What we know:
Number of domains: 3
Distance between the termini: 59 Å
Structural class: alpha/beta
CATH topology of the largest domain: Rossmann fold
CATH class of the largest domain: Alpha Beta
Number of helices: 19
Strand content: 15-25%
Largest sheet: 6 strands, mixed
Helix content: 25-40%
Amino acid sequence: MLEVATPAEPGPILAETKPLLTLKGISKRFPGVRALHDVSLSLYPGQVTALIGENGAGKSTLVKILTGIYQPDEGEIAVKGVPVHLGSAHAAFGAGITAIHQETVLFDELSVAENVFLGHAPRTRFKTIDWSKMRREARQVLNDMGASHIDPNHRLKDLSIANKHLVGVARAMSIDADVVIMDEPTAALSYKEIEDLFVLIELLKEDGKAVLFISHKFDEIYRIADRYTVFRDGELVGSGLLKETDQNAIIKMMVGRSVDHIFPKREAQIGAPLLEVTGLSHPTEFDDISFTLRAGEILGFYGLVGAGRSEVMQALFGITKPSAGSISLAGATIAPASPADAVNAGIVYVPEERGKQGVVIGMPIFKNVSLPSLKRTSQSGVLRLREEFALARTYTERLDLRASSLSQDVGTLSGGNQQKVVIAKWLATSPKVIILDEPTKGIDIGSKAAVHEFMGELVAEGLSVIMVSSELPEILGMSDRVVVMREGRIVATHDNTELSAETLVRTAAGIAEEQQR
């Protein structure tokens, strides 16, 4: 039986507030899966409630119920004390509920104003779209949220990724909803843009909005949220006030265990140089990249957004062609002209965008895992399902994949479990070097621990790992050495001995020397 944490006693101001939205006894089942069971949630005006849980805990299902995409099998939803039926997205919209997703659906060929007011554009008395009013109101929304640099008349496709995300926020703001759901809203934003978003959230709180904030990043949760609700395996396991709750206690609720082993302790047995990169350059992405990766080593790559880390990895994997430089693996010079060449040489790449570049949505788990290894699982051009299943089972069990069966569509898995499928797929090819690009981006702390533990096992077996990460705890907790990149160049390489987060940030931002003077 799950142990439910007793909520902390609210302070005097929070105690007097009645919830704007309440859910009671919500349950939702899918074939073979119990997504939610008897969960409750309250969202309060002027407050941010953090919804916390591992991938697969039921958070996404709850958001889809709140936005009218799914209907609960049991339970009641009330807005301002009045029971409501959210039978469609339009009904949720009418009830004053809006959501800002990690990947909000926007349309590149439409203008910013058209995207902001899509589905609820202002009308003239003849019921046609009032274009001038729409542009004025879009400008007002953008100004109010501190995004006056975005022109409502510009086409969306001409904006940066971060500005597109801000347009998604503006779209939600234009509805003037009472309840705002933010599902991993900072995933695609830089540090400055995250700070700007937090200012926006404070404005929403001042305006009396109830905000549901979903994030795997505890620094964000403790920075912006007032309350927390924790789900585990589709059930409510705790709720209360963040200021009165220890972070380790929340993590233990999430994963059902202590956090002592998030970064596994390991004795690094580092061998001879395995991969040597010399003078690798690209006309627009990076220049003069030189480094050595040794057998049994985890080499971390750190840098700010746009530093060129992923671009270097894509060149090593044969996705892009460098203009100069050389690559040597196990003493032999290689020049991968395609990913197939890289895989054959012994280099594999787990991309940051796992949903678009890592898995094939619509295919079952076992076929995704066996896809690069068809020569091993076929005979005379005929696939052998038994061997495909056996191969997939071997590697998914090692990664503790959570799925109903290996025949389950990979697209129905949580982000953390999709990441495990991608890693399993490439490990099945028996590589010498595995490149992990943001290996734990957007996945929960339990899945992160599983990936980190498995990385330790890989290097213990003699494999070498390059880990690109923007998360300082991960870089410091897992790397044997850290390469720092800035503006397409390597600016420092550090042994991870008493290495501080401050040193890495200063080096990546180009202020290390200035601070020393």
